[in-house]
Structure formats: structure tokens, C-alpha cells
Amino acid sequence: MADTRPETAGRPIRIAIVGVGKIARDQHLPALAANPAYRLVAAASHSGRVDGVPNFGTIEEMLAAMPEIEAVSLCMPPQVRYEAARAAIAANKHVFLEKPPGATVSEVEHLKALATRKGVSLFASWHSRYAPAVEAARTFLAGTRIRSAAINWKEDVRRWHPNQEWIWQPGGLGVFDPGINALSIATHILPEMFITQATLDFPANRDAPVAAHIRFRTADGTPIGMELDWLQTGPQSWDVLADTDAGSMVLSGGGARLAIDGRTVHEEPEAEYPMLYRRFAELVRTGKSDVDLAPLRHVADAFMLGKRSTVAAFYD
Amino acid sequence: MADTRPETAGRPIRIAIVGVGKIARDQHLPALAANPAYRLVAAASHSGRVDGVPNFGTIEEMLAAMPEIEAVSLCMPPQVRYEAARAAIAANKHVFLEKPPGATVSEVEHLKALATRKGVSLFASWHSRYAPAVEAARTFLAGTRIRSAAINWKEDVRRWHPNQEWIWQPGGLGVFDPGINALSIATHILPEMFITQATLDFPANRDAPVAAHIRFRTADGTPIGMELDWLQTGPQSWDVLADTDAGSMVLSGGGARLAIDGRTVHEEPEAEYPMLYRRFAELVRTGKSDVDLAPLRHVADAFMLGKRSTVAAFYD
């Protein structure tokens, strides 16, 4: 197998983008264009188009027309991601999944098994884990005792997800769409944790929550609170805070800056998607997969265990 | 380790019951009394009592007072099961978990890891899997092609769960409390499947659903429908049906009877809890665990992906 893998052969991975929406244009296409490990050879989308490559209406048409495709990056909404991933894996393609990796935990477990069986690389990407200060925060926390922690993710949905209808539909996750980014960081830097209590606020006219108030605990009882809010105007908060024996930690800006006792110890410009694509190339080259479901599992747990409250209707 | 395990030494396992409610009295205590592989030595419960053994208010008091306990069977509501399981595992006890094994998928994953670390046996029991005709159904389905399947679990909550308040609270799962029994059978006899669409009906005055309408599909696209209803009066339905190349299969009575094309091919009286305790003794004796989370994962997926609809208030 190894010598047929593109990276081993020293030539770019022939990759296609599926789902040409906001995230593909904002992040995936620029990251691919800047990385010589890839050559973008096609795109498939119901609505969007990519200039300079063949465009198809569906992934099935694309895979049938262009057998030279080696990998696909799936950027469509999670509700329809499984079908595309399954088609790609069945056709022996390596698969990059935008977050969240699927609409259910079970379907991603299944994709994982399929990819293993087919010997292709599957990458459930969590872009926030590649924020610049995340590894420094992880190292800091590993060396101290955590007394409590708080995850605060408060942003303005009208600014970041204007008129994205899918996000309010069942399976679109609502405020957990950004919230799962917080969870992807928290599950990477904090000890193993799980939800003990949750309240999810649903706008009267929507099928997904606009806010959530969650209590986690770690195995040894350390309390971790999480506040998700999608109606935050003014300054936006994407912070993980921890009160520790080595001082008060604030990881802010979605993982961009780390401060201990008010002193910034790590800050650099973000390069999340470039790093994701570097990671994916490495997975393809080494024949590995990387599918950590902990963030999605917590979201499912929050929906299962959470109390629902109805709040004011939301209009974009 | 092996020679300290009670079964290897040929003497009964000293077991304690925690949570002395309806299920403990109806099922666990009779099953234990009838099985010479166990000796019931204590009970812990906020409210209930077991005659003839020392009774404690909490598991912590019980474990502290009676170090000779080797195993515990946890029969309290799922919302508080983790804490007790963790205390028991930390004290090197083997643990039998009533279904569902916890309030979140994540916490049970965590218990699994803890049990492995401690070298004790953890059993996430799914009693319906031990219904008499389940294995015959599994064998039948493994030898044919399934065109479609349906899971119908329709019972009268007032008859089976009278005034069980916890079941309507967040984490109590509502109609998924019996529905997870159906899922424990379905995930055992049908190919791997996952939810593509769900609607959950919540009574206006309750935090858990009274009905659910779910569509699954298998990896190769076979459709599986699931209907859960907790307001079924008259005849009760606990059926898994499959349309197959080898005929029409009906597994009814919660797994008690198997019929192919209308002809009963397997029927015997149920002995689910006796079989569960036989299985647990075997796990303890062989130093193994059995923790299949697929049924609980599907429930979490249904809550995450499901559309909520509000229906008439429910009063016991």
C-alpha cells in the first residue's frame, strides 16, 4: 500500500472539495492553494462553484468522472456528510471531514470502521485544536492541579452565520456548532470530563438551541462550567479559563492567546486550516486515521441529558 | 489476580444491591436468590430496604462498613449511577449496571476505562438481549438479505412505570427507557445502523419524550423504522419485524417469540435477569468486562438529531 500513497511518491495529493459554501471559500480553498502537498482537481456542490477546475453537481458524478481523485474534503452541512463520506471511502478515497464529523455519533463510528476496512485515511478535523496557544495551554494544565474551569463561548450568530438555515435545523446543532469548537479544545487540554447537568435554550421558532448552560465534572470531581450564547453582541468571547495551583489561566480568542495570572505567555496569528491540511497530508502519507469523537459525544450527551427551555423566537 | 476471583475459588460472589426500587424487587433480588453463584450480603438505598441483610443509606457507607463485598449491582435511576459506579470501582468491586448504564455516553466510556485500569469486571447489562428468542432471530437474519425492518415498542407508561418521576426528568429518557430495550435487541440482531431522521414528542409539562418516530438506515441503505409510544392502552407491542429474502420475520413479546411467515419457530418463557446474573458471574470469573454502548449512543443521537414536537400534557 505505502508506495501508492501520493506523499510517499513525492507528488501532490489530487484532492477535491465537496460542498462549496462559506467555510470552503473562507478557509479550505485558501489553505489548499497555499499548500504544495495538494493539487485541487475538482469540486462538487449543489450551489457553489470553484473556478479553474471541473465542477460537478454531486460527489457521485464527480467520483465517476474523475477516478484520478485521491482525496476529498467534505465541507457540506453535517446532516448530509455521511452519504458523501461513505461514497468516497467506498471509492478508496482519503476523506477529510469538516467539523462536526457527522450528524450522529453512530454514523461516524461507522465511517471509522469503513475507512479501516478500506485502508484509507479518515480525518475528523477539529480546527480549533490547531489554534496557536492550545498546545501551550495543554502543557501548562498537565503540570498543575486544576481547581475549577470554565468554558465561555459567546458570539453573535447574525455576524458569523448569517442566514445559514441548516444550522437551525435538526442536526444543525445551533449554538453547539461553535460550541463544539470549544469542546474540541476543552477535551484536548482538560482531564477527561462528562456532563452532569445541562439546560438548552431553544428559540420558540427554531429546532436548535441558541444558548446552553452546562455543568461538567472530571473523574475526580473538578467542576467545569460551560456557557454557550449565540446572541452576544459587542465583544465576542471564546475563552477557556482555569483556576489552578500554578495560577489563573486564560486561553482566549478561541485558543489564540494564553495568559497566566494576567500575563500573556503565548500569542501568535492563527493558521488553523493550514495546519489541518498539513495534518491530513501526514495522515495520508503514513496511512493513518484521526477520528476523535469526544467533542461530538459531549454534544449528544448534552441533548440527551439536557433540560430544554423555550426562549424568544429568533429571526436573522 | 485470577485466584482471588470468587468464582475461581468455587465460592459464591458476595454481592450487594444498590437502589432498592421496583426493578430491584421485581427482578434483581429474585434472580440473585435463585443463583447459588451469589450471596447477597448487603443493600444500600435512600428509601427501600432488603430483609435479612444489613441496609445502608448510601453506597459509600456500605463499602466502608463491609469491605468483604466483592461486587455491587446498581439499580438506581441512571442520573445518579455514575457516582456509585465510580465509588465501587475505586474500591475494587465488580460492577453490574442496570440499563441504561448511565446518564451520558461519555461517563460510561469513562467507567469502562476505570474498570480496565482497576482490573475489575464491568457489565453494562441489556436485559432484553437475553430474551428467549433473540439469538434465534439473530441467526435467522444473519443468513438472509434484509429488505427493510421495523421496530415497534408501544406500551402503557401508566401500567409499567406508575408514578416513576425520575423517568420524566432530564436524563430519565422517557419513552426511550423501554425504547432502549428495543435498541439493545435491534443492535444485536440487525446490521450496523444509524439514525437519519427523528421526531421526539414531548408532553407540554414534561422533560422527556412520550413518543418517538425514528428512521435508521444500515450502511448499505436498508431502511429501518422505529416507533416508540408510551400511551398504548389495550394490547402492548414490543416487536421487531423484518422483511427478508427468507420470509417475513416477527420477533414479538419483547424478544420472547420468533415467527417466520406467520409460523412460530421459537417460544419459551423468559428468564432475562437470571441469564444476566449468569453472564455477570462468568465475567467476574474470567476477569472480563462487557460494555456495549451502541443502544445508549443511538438514544443520544436521537436527542441530538431529533426534531422536537410538543404534545398534550401527561398526568400519571
TrEMBL record, chains A, B:
<dbReference type="InterPro" id="IPR036291">
    <property type="entry name" value="NAD(P)-bd_dom_sf"/>
</dbReference>
<dbReference type="InterPro" id="IPR050463">
    <property type="entry name" value="Gfo/Idh/MocA_oxidrdct_glycsds"/>
</dbReference>
<feature type="domain" description="Gfo/Idh/MocA-like oxidoreductase N-terminal">
    <location>
        <begin position="13"/>
        <end position="123"/>
    </location>
</feature>
<dbReference type="InterPro" id="IPR000683">
    <property type="entry name" value="Gfo/Idh/MocA-like_OxRdtase_N"/>
</dbReference>
<protein>
    <submittedName>
        <fullName>Gfo/Idh/MocA family protein</fullName>
    </submittedName>
</protein>
<dbReference type="Pfam" id="PF01408">
    <property type="entry name" value="GFO_IDH_MocA"/>
</dbReference>
